[in-house]
UniProtKB/TrEMBL annotation:
Gene3D superfamilies: Aconitase, domain 3, Aconitase, domain 4. NCBIfam families: acon_putative (TIGR01342), PRK07229.1 (NF005558). It holds the Pfam family Aconitase. The keyword ATP-binding does not apply. This is Aconitate hydratase. PANTHER family: ACONITATE HYDRATASE B, ACONITATE HYDRATASE, MITOCHONDRIAL. InterPro entries: Acnase/IPM_dHydase_lsu_aba_1/3, Acoase/IPM_deHydtase_lsu_aba, Aconitase/3IPM_dehydase_swvl, Aconitase/IPM_isomerase, Aconitase_4Fe-4S_dom, Aconitase_put, AconitaseA/IPMdHydase_ssu_swvl. Residues 8-285, 286-407 form the Aconitase/3-isopropylmalate dehydratase large subunit alpha/beta/alpha domain. Residues 527-585 form the Aconitase A/isopropylmalate dehydratase small subunit swivel domain. It comes from Streptomonospora halophila. It comes from the Bacteria. Keywords: Iron, Iron-sulfur, Metal-binding.
Length: 652
């Protein structure tokens, strides 16, 4: 049988293992991506590893998440990151240059290459025919240090696209349809590969929208072919020489298959507060709206802003709606302005914000309590917006603009009929407004080695975690349900994120969206015995931020016992010495309560030798069989108290 794009990408970078689903493999990494919310830890990890200079072909540090400078903390982090980029030979994208994913696609993405990024939406680069995987920061630090990326070989899920999208729908509705069908766990341990004749109707930026939100399906990554649409994109960016065709064989075989007739897609919307609670917009129509936000890496292309601008041109958004526009890059903002679309947006009442993530990560634009916020963002986890009791919906730019005009959730087809709006005919520019002035290139090697890191008072050292003890006897400090996200473990938002470089201070926010008292109760366990957390299915979904492993570990977390784990967070736990265990009988989850004292014994002998361990519930006098899925290197990491001490010894 023939090979698909994903198989070809893996085979060309495979340095260890076999491409058999479920087995460990190692892949060489060509490029790395870090952003400021996770990159500060990566740079601290490079310092701890004693690295001289990046060994990847291209490494880029973006500043796109924490742009608000309410005090000195974010500015200190930006100085630290720029100094680290000089020290380790990375490109540096200055604050306000743009969101990492579309900006990387515009300036650095190359078909056929691999990319490891400390952001779960790194998978967006699959739109160019790249194998782009979002991982924890330590994985990226290791890739910068020249180490391969280690993952479990995924299944390849082939999704065949046919037909053409109808008017008033867009690529966002395609990925929402995938989430409606398959849910947030549908892509676990899979690479999604889109193929079929429907691809001919989707631009590279349309594909970016779909690839980006593969993270919401839980997928390892998403890939598209590098075809004529990718060539057109790179030509517009002045980089046609970087194009290499990469297509699936005509008889390519896939482990799992699905098909979407694009002509059958209708405007869709995700209800609060999960990306897979998807219904047709007409089912939610009439709900009052207080805020509409267009932007983010999930709707980053010029077309996504231009279609909204064309819809609101010469009209006023409803007086009760705050209409916010987040340009995804300065380049796209410049092109939008050249076409006159920026004036159309401003004339309709839009508030234009700087190019960056901002509201997507809860850094500004927090909605009012009890007010519906429609966003073209990738996620609507509870509280992620910066408002604890929020009501965030996810939709396309067409639905967002229609609802902003109407003041209530509105299907754009219905608004067009009511107001006599013709579907906008948009013609993209042949050449993009390329401006690299806010991209700082890496200095020569000799200059890098002389550079010093600039650390403000808010930047702490990485914690030094001790090895895992042979016996853990500790209480269950917290029991949580299914689909708990890393936003709930280590919150984003304007209050917490400025402390991303200060682990002791950031730890005070740990789990507070679920249990405000968790940090205090963890501190009260002063005898050092630590504690357990019990989780449901898909524990740790969402962002790749390794803070969600580090801050609970700092507070004494020894082990998480769950029904199942999200891929990136599971790896992050192992990287920082937290034991991740799964119930062999999911019903045992119901037999453990918060406050129960649990015992694991003989760990240093059992973990390397067997995949199962026995957990004793001392409070209830019961035993449960648990399993771990750790490879031998991961077991070594957990026993050592984390990966950093092991790697530092290897690099000496």
């Amino acid at each position: 049988m023939g090979r698909g794009v994903a198989h070809k990408l893996i085979e060309s970078h495979l340095v260890e293992g076999e491409m058999v689903p479920g087995r460990p493999i190692a892949l060489s990494v060509d490029q790395t991506l870090t952003q400021d919310a996770t990159g500060t830890l990566v740079m601290q990890e490079l310092e701890a590893l004693g690295l001289d200079r990046t060994r990847a072909e291209v490494s880029v540090q973006y500043v796109d998440h924490n742009l608000l400078q309410a005090d000195e903390k974010n500015a200190e982090d930006h100085e630290f990151l720029q100094s680290a980029a000089r020290r380790y030979g990375l490109w540096y994208s200055k604050p306000g240059n743009g969101v990492s994913h579309p900006t990387h696609m515009q300036r650095f993405g190359v078909p056929g290459k691999t990319l490891a990024g400390s952001d779960s939406h790194t998978c967006a680069a699959g739109s160019l025919g790249m194998l782009a995987v979002g991982v924890g920061g330590l994985e990226v630090a290791m890739a910068i240090a020249g180490r391969p990326l280690r993952i479990r070989a995924p299944q390849i899920w082939g999704v065949r696209l046919t037909g053409e999208l109808p008017e008033w729908t867009s690529a966002k509705d395609v990925i929402l349809e995938m989430l409606r069908r398959h849910g947030v766990k549908g892509g676990l341990n899979r690479i999604i590969e889109y193929h079929g004749p429907g691809l001919d109707t989707l631009s590279a930026m349309d594909r970016h929208v779909i690839a980006n939100m593969g993270a919401e399906l839980g997928a390892t990554t998403t890939v598209f072919p590098a075809d004529g649409a990718v060539r057109d994109f790179l030509r517009a960016e002045g980089r046609e020489d970087d194009f290499t065709e990469l297509l699936a064989d005509t008889d390519a075989a896939y482990d799992v298959t699905d098909e979407i007739d694009l002509s059958s897609v209708e405007p869709l919307i995700a209800l609060p507060s999960a990306p897979d609670k998807v219904v047709p917009v007409r089912e939610a129509a009439g709900e009052k709206v207080g805020q509409v936000v267009i932007g983010s890496s999930a709707n980053p292309g010029l077309r996504d802003y231009a279609v909204a601008a064309a819809m609101v041109k010469g009209r006023q958004t409803d007086s009760t709606v705050s209409f916010d526009v987040n340009p995804s890059s300065r380049q796209i903002f410049a092109d939008l302005t050249k076409t006159g679309a920026t004036v159309d947006l401003i004339g309709a009442g839009a508030r234009i914000h700087q190019a960056g993530c901002l509201g997507c990560i809860g850094m500004g634009q927090a909605p009012a309590v009890g007010s519906n916020s429609l966003r073209t963002f990738p996620r609507n986890f509870p509280g992620r917006s910066g408002t604890k009791e929020d009501s965030v919906w996810l939709c396309s730019p067409e639905t967002a603009a229609a609802s902003a005009l109407a003041g209530e959730i509105t299907d754009p087809r219905d608004l067009a009929e009511r107001l006599g709006i013709a579907y906008p005919e948009l013609e993209p520019p042949e050449r993009s407004s390329v401006n690299t002035r806010m991209l700082v290139p890496p200095p020569p090697r000799e200059e890098s080695l002389r550079a010093e890191l600039v650390k403000g008072p808010n930047i702490s050292a990485l914690p030094d975690f001790p090895p895992l003890p042979d016996r853990i006897e500790a209480p269950v400090l917290l029991k949580v349900g299914d689909d708990v996200s890393t936003d709930e473990i280590s919150p984003a938002g304007a209050a917490a994120l400025p402390f991303r470089s200060n682990v002791p201070r950031l730890a005070e926010f740990t789990f507070t969206r679920i249990d405000e008292d968790y940090p205090r109760r963890a501190h009260d366990l002063a005898d050092g015995q630590g504690h357990f957390v019990i989780g449901g299915d898909n524990y740790g979904q969402g962002s790749s931020r390794e803070h969600a492993a580090i801050t609970p570990r700092f507070l004494g977390l020894r082990a998480v016992v769950a029904r199942s784990f999200a891929r990136i967070h599971w790896q992050n736990l192992a990287n920082f010495g937290v034991l991740a265990l799964e119930f062999t009988d999911p019903a045992d989850y119901d037999r453990i309560e918060s406050g129960d004292v649990l015992v694991l014994d003989g760990l240093r002998e059992t973990l390397p030798a067997a995949s199962e361990v026995v957990l004793r519930n001392k409070t209830r006098d019961e035993e449960y069989t648990l399993r771990h899925r750790l490879s031998a290197p991961q077991v070594e990491s957990v026993l050592a108290g984390g990966q950093i001490p092991l790697l530092a010894r290897e690099l000496e």
